[in-house]
Structure formats: C-alpha cells, structure tokens
Write a structure and sequence with these properties.
Length: 252
C-alpha cells in the first residue's frame, strides 16, 4: 500500500478559520492515503471543526490541546513574540506514538499550518521520504521563495538562499520539510520546544532527526514552488461588532 501522509495541523478559532480549513480539507481530499491530525487550540472540540471533518470524507483524528496561558498570544501582541502551534504539534506526535507501530506503519509526517497553501503534488511526493525531505517555500522569510540550493553533482543540499537568520542550521520554514514516521516513532524524545530562540523551531526539530547533508530534496531538486506561506489578513468586521451589541454574535 502507499505510505500514509500524516498531516498535523494546529488550528484555533477566529473569523477566517472555516475558510482556511475548507481550503485545506479540499486540497487534502485530492490525496490518497492521507490522514489529517487536526489539533484544536481550545478547551473543547468545537462544532465548527467537528462538522467540517465529518463532512469531509477524509481520514482524520480530531484532538484538542490548549496553548499554556503564558505562551498564548494576546489580542494586540505581534505574532513573532511567541512561537505558535508548539504544543499542538507535539500533541499530534504523541497521538502518532500511541497509535502507530514502526514495524507496521509506513508513512511521513508533515506539519501543515492551517493558513498556508499546499499543492497535491508536494503531498504526493513527500510520502516516500526516507528520513527527512525538503523543498522550497513561497512567500516567507522576506523572499518570494526561500529554498535550499542543490549541488547538481551530488544531488544534496549545498547551501540555502535564506535571508532571515541565515545562520540557522536548517534555515527553512515549517512548511518546507517532512519527516519519516518511523524515525519519529523510534525516537520518542523528538518534539517541539519553547526553549529555543525565535525562528529556531524548525532547526531544533530537524537537528534531532537528521543532518543538512542527509536531506532529501523534492520538488524537482528544489526548483519548483509547491507550497506557500500565505497569511490571511483579519477581515474588517466592524459592522458585525456594532450588530453584536444588539443581538447574538453571528456564527459560521
Ligand atoms: N495557532 C494556534 N493557536 C494560536 C495561534 C496559532 O493553534 O493561538 C496555529 C495556527 O492556526 C497555525 C499555526 O498555529 O496552524 C501557526 O500559526 P501562524 O500561522 O499564526 O504562524 P506564522 O504563520 O505566523 O508562523
Ligand atoms: Mn501561518
């Protein structure tokens, strides 16, 4: 059978959530043997996410995991102040370790934030990852494309074009790599940590499982952009707020 693509997605309630998850789920529906592990940053499973999953026809696991209060971004706080999605991704990893066996289950794990844009192609390519694979990410790090450079002779990553914190060992976005499932099952200590400098989540986790030399380049030797670090702006809901004072808040 095809190796499974396990996609771990942290998500939280806000006006654009249903639109983001709809875009994601309708991409994932086009991929065979994909298992969506969606982790809500909330106290309880919400009806919005439960219904979206139920109606999607996807293989999924619906988890909840609250960001510890001291790590939760405040309303007006700039987002780079605190890393986001850390405990949710770890909850997804914990679920995999409790549910899957390295001798039986073959697959790859991908950390897909709910606001990015993913192609079917990259999801299909990453499933054959032996250890850890990498590829370019569009619209991130102050660049149109942030990417590893591949040495044509060796087929290995020789350098990176990253402009933001290029001194990182793996100067790459969360959307730009995937890790083999067995590796994560065999090394149960591998997880995301708050105890890292800003921008070091990716370097921290990749350092625990591989080296830059071992990375497997995908997307035509990292020449194609197959994922984008898109971000939705908060919609103007000024009129809703005026109405809300008179009646119940509208729901999705
Ligand atoms: N996220 C979350 N709780 C929060 C903020 C973000 O679960 O309080 C999720 C969000 O839905 C996304 C991931 O964490 O899937 C990364 O967040 P974001 O897209 O804001 O990060 P950025 O794109 O700025 O790195
Ligand atoms: Mn994002």
């Amino acid at each position: 059978a095809l190796p499974v693509v396990y996609v771990i997605t942290p998500t939280f309630a806000r006006p654009v959530q249903k639109a983001e998850l709809t875009r994601l789920s309708q991409t994932f529906m086009l991929v065979q043997n994909l298992h969506w592990i969606i982790v809500e940053d909330s106290k309880q499973k919400t009806a919005l996410v439960s219904n979206l999953l139920k109606n999607s026809n996807l293989n999924y696991t619906h988890l909840i995991n609250m960001t510890p209060p001291q790590w939760k971004l405040k309303q007006k706080e700039q987002r780079w102040r605190k890393p986001r999605g850390v405990t949710q991704r770890n909850a997804g990893l914990t679920w995999l370790r409790e549910s899957k066996k390295p001798a039986v289950d073959r697959g790859v794990v991908y950390f897909a934030d709910d606001d990015n844009t993913y192609t079917v192609q990259i999801l299909n390519e990453m499933r054959y990852t032996r250890k850890a694979s990498v590829w370019p990410v569009g619209l991130v790090g102050g660049l149109m494309v942030e990417k590893p450079n591949i040495d044509p002779d060796t087929g290995r990553v020789s350098s990176w074009n990253s402009a933001w914190r290029p001194e990182r060992k793996f100067p790459i976005d969360m959307a730009g790599f995937a890790i083999n499932l067995r590796i994560l099952l065999e090394k149960p200590s591998v997880k995301f940590s708050y105890q890292v400098e800003r921008g070091y989540l990716e370097t921290d986790i990749l350092s625990q499982v591989t080296t830059p030399e071992e990375l497997e380049p995908l997307a035509d030797n990292c020449t194609k952009v197959l994922v984008w670090h898109t971000r939705s702006q908060n919609p103007n809901l000024e009129a809703e707020n005026r109405l809300a004072r008179k009646s119940l808040p509208p729901s999705n």
